[in-house]
């Protein structure tokens, strides 16, 4: 059976109703499209763990800041649908903004938002992207309510997003199991991202030092170095000076508290701009 493309919320709801009657389990893979092998790994995982797979493709306006790349974000629905077909996804749900949010003004003066706690939003990516995680949590809860999946697969590449969504599901008693999936990289180590298409050859070369810096942290940690300050300095020495570093932080993966001494469960996370393109990457030690 080939993948069915649905644009309307009601069509998804009706499809899900039929699946439920037949006793199927459902996994959701939320994406913004421009699908690549990172997304493919999530879809493969979803296929493994459930009978039916829905891939949502929606560039969500309310998670972009006014000076971010909402308008120029790559939109490649035809190719996305083809990949979903090859991977055996059952439905691609690709609504437009009006279908998702109706005629309302996309601001908290009119729209109900999910606001994750300040402590986990006002750090790392949230610090430079005010409102971003409110937009993410809001659209993900909407997608959960539309698709009612048993499982939802998310990439560890967006570690803070994953942490925030795990908290949302727990705090709001959402009946969905969040499945974390490992980061997929290019052969040379660059974390795959839809935004990599923006990079010039030079910008890509500089961007590669992000994963190199993380590898250096891993290498030194395996040699017994646990001081976050020492690891920070060693990683900075590896990062290209051409990058505009936004943060390099060490946090406990389970609590997201900052750590001075790293250990087995520490997340080392980097955000940096290469040219105009903002990139993120991380490792869990
Ligand atoms: P996006 O389309 O960028 O919103 O990403 C959709 C999902 O794919 C998110 O859960 C991301 O964490 C995940 N993802 C993006 N890039 C990768 C990657 N390189 N490896 C694994 N998962 C990824």
Question: Explain this structure to me?
Answer:
The model has no long low-confidence stretch (mean pLDDT 97). Strands 1-4-3-2-5-6 form a 6-stranded parallel sheet, sandwiched between helices. The chain has a 3-stranded antiparallel sheet with strand order 7-8-9. The radius of gyration is 19 Å and the shape is globular. The chain has helices at residues 9-21, 37-49, 77-87, 97-101, 118-121, 124-128, 132-147, 159-171, 201-222, 228-238, and strands spanning 4-6, 26-31, 52-57, 91-93, 151-155, 177-181, 244-252, 266-274, 277-284. Helix 2 links the parallel strand 2 and strand 3 (52-57). The protein is an alpha/beta fold and 285 residues long. Helix 9 (201-222) packs antiparallel against helix 10. It is built from 10 helices and 9 strands. It folds into 2 domains: 4-181, Rossmann fold (3-Layer(aba) Sandwich), CATH 3.40.50.620; 194-284, 2-Layer Sandwich (Pantoate--beta-alanine Ligase, Chain: A,domain 2). The structure holds adenosine monophosphate.
């Amino acid at each position: 059976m080939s993948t069915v493309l649905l644009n309307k919320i009601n069509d998804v709801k009706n499809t899900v109703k039929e699946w439920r009657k037949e006793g199927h389990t459902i996994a959701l893979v939320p994406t913004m499209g421009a699908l690549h092998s990172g997304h493919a790994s999530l879809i493969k995982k979803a296929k493994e763990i459930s009978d039916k797979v829905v891939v949502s493709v929606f560039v969500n306006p309310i998670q972009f800041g006014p000076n971010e790349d909402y308008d120029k974000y790559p939109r490649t629905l035809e190719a996305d649908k083809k990949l979903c077909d090859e991977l055996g996804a059952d439905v691609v749900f690709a609504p437009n903004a009006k279908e998702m949010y109706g005629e309302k003004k996309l601001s908290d003066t009119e729209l109900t938002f999910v606001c994750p706690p300040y402590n986990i939003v006002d750090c790392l990516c949230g610090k430079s992207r005010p409102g971003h995680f409110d937009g993410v949590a809001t659209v993900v809860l909407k997608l959960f309510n539309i698709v009612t999946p048993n499982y939802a697969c998310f990439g560890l590449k967006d570690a803070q997003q994953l942490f925030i969504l795990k908290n949302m599901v727990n705090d709001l008693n959402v009946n969905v199991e969040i499945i974390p999936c490992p980061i997929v990289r290019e052969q040379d180590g660059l974390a795959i991202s839809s935004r990599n298409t923006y990079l010039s050859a030079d910008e890509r070369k500089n961007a590669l030092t992000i994963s190199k810096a993380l590898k250096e942290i891993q290498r030194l940690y395996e040699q017994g170095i646990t001081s976050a300050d020492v690891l920070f300095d060693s990683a900075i020495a590896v990062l290209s000076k051409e990058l505009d570093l936004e943060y390099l932080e060490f946090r406990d993966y389970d609590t997201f508290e900052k750590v001075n001494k790293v250990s087995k469960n520490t997340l080392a996370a980097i955000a940096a701009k290469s040219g105009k393109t903002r990139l993120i990457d991380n490792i869990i030690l």
